[in-house]
Amino acid sequence: MARHYLDHASTSPLRPAARRALIETLDRALGDPGRIHEEALTARALLEHAREQVAAALGARPREVSFCSGATEAIATVCAGVGSRGSRQIVVATEHSAVRLAAERAGEVTAVPVDRLGRVDPDAIAAALGPDVSVVHVQWGNHETGVVQPVHEIVEVCAGTDTLVHVDAAQAAGRQHLDFAGLGADLMSISSHKIGGPVGIGALLVRRGLRIDPLLLGGDQERARRAGLEDVATATAFGAAVASVDIATEAAEQARLRRRVDQLFIATDGVTPVGDPDHRLPHIAAATIGDVEPQAVLLGLDRAGIAAHSGSACSSESLEPSPVLEAMGVDAHHSLRISTGWSTTDADIDALEPALPRVLEELRALRPI
Q1: DSSP H helical segments within 13-144, as ranges?
Q2: Which residue in 68, 79, 158, 314 is the catalytic one?
């Protein structure tokens, strides 16, 4: 049976350019980039080339890019590293758990609510600001619904204050044009594997002139922002992945395929799309399926050869309902997320279109009369 992968928002398959770069780098005799012998200098050159590729893709200076193990570590570094600037952090209520939990561990947190479409009001952010606030965390685009937040407006309301702005761009990178310098944010977190790079690497962008306390101690690697020997092979593959992205072409294609999913949701009995229909990332379609358990739906789709995801409790590592949908005031227990990516084709949606209504019909037939 052919497989159809429609869970790119969780992780995206490795791009060919990234695979080639990873293998080529692993096949070379490399040293510690912090040393001065030939093997070390070769490693340093590869690492800095990758840094330049990531910076160019994100509208940043290379020296603003710090490699780390992924967006989760980048977020934890921000949350722990800004403590000396204030005792309170502001999060949008639909932020990823990596942000919410790391901020809670760091100290006091103010969660700013969103509307039923998942958008936050910049004026509500402004109202929550105070001299004790160290940082405002805001996702560029949500991981469950794809809803895009008014990031530029939020940066503007924080301008002129001592409050930093951290943007979680893990879902948006490679799918929308990101200009770190033009945005004016202070910090931005990125994940390689969401873009089609390898797992185990990401980047924290730190505005020029800003210093935050490092999360990992022990050395002065990554401009003293992240101790530990750099993983040159995965950094090289990460750089190759972002350099190979044609955002305009890929985003348009992913959005076209996602619109087919939107139409399928609308046409399928008992399925209700969620999230802002106008302000959204190109690759994520989310819906509630109120009368059937999402785990059974996912298993039924998997038997049909389709990989999908749900933010609901029974289909994830958590035992709680989706905090994103809960914050939006919609059914947080029964959800379905379909996400397209660089390798998605019409054949994948062709397989989903008959499979989803069939699986739902079969599950409803099993309910007691």
Answers
A1: 16-26, 38-58, 71-81, 97-106, 122-128
A2: 314
Nearest-angstrom CA–CA distance, 236 and 19 = 10
* Same domain, yes or no: 28 and 151: yes
Q: Are 223 and 281 in the same domain?
A: no
148 and 256 together in one domain: no
- Per the structure, the count of domains in the chain is 2
Domain extent at residue 281: 4-11+246-365
Q: Active-site residue 79, yes or no?
A: no
Order the strands of the 88-92 sheet from edge to edge: 65-68, 202-206, 187-191, 164-168, 133-139, 88-92, 108-112
Q: Could you tell me the two tokens for 76?
A: 């934890």
- Of 200, 223, 244, which marks where a domain is finished? 244
CA distance 246 to 175: 9
Of the pLDDT bands very low, low, confident and very high (cuts 50, 70, 90), residue 241 is: very high
Task: Please report, for residues 72, 92, 282, 320, the alpha-carbon distance to residue 96 in angstroms, rounded to integers and kept in the order given.
Answer: 10, 9, 19, 14
CATH number of the domain bearing residue 140: 3.40.640.10
DSSP, collapsed to helix, strand or coil, labels residue 155 as helix
Does position 153 have pLDDT exceeding 90, yes or no? yes
Are the beta carbons of 146 and 286 closer than 8 angstroms?
Answer: yes
Same structural domain, 233 and 252 = no
Q: Which of 194, 227, 244 is the last residue of a domain?
A: 244
Q: Could you report the per-residue pLDDT of 193-231, keeping only the tens digit for each?
A: 999 999 999 999 999 999 999 899 998 889 989 989 999
Residue range 255-292, pLDDT digits in tens: 999 999 999 999 999 999 999 999 999 999 999 998 89
Say what the pTM is: 0.95
Say whether pLDDT at 39 is over 80: yes
> Are residues 263 and 234 both part of a single domain?
no
pLDDT in tens, 50-85: 999 999 999 999 999 999 999 999 999 999 999 899
Residue 284, helix vs strand vs coil: strand
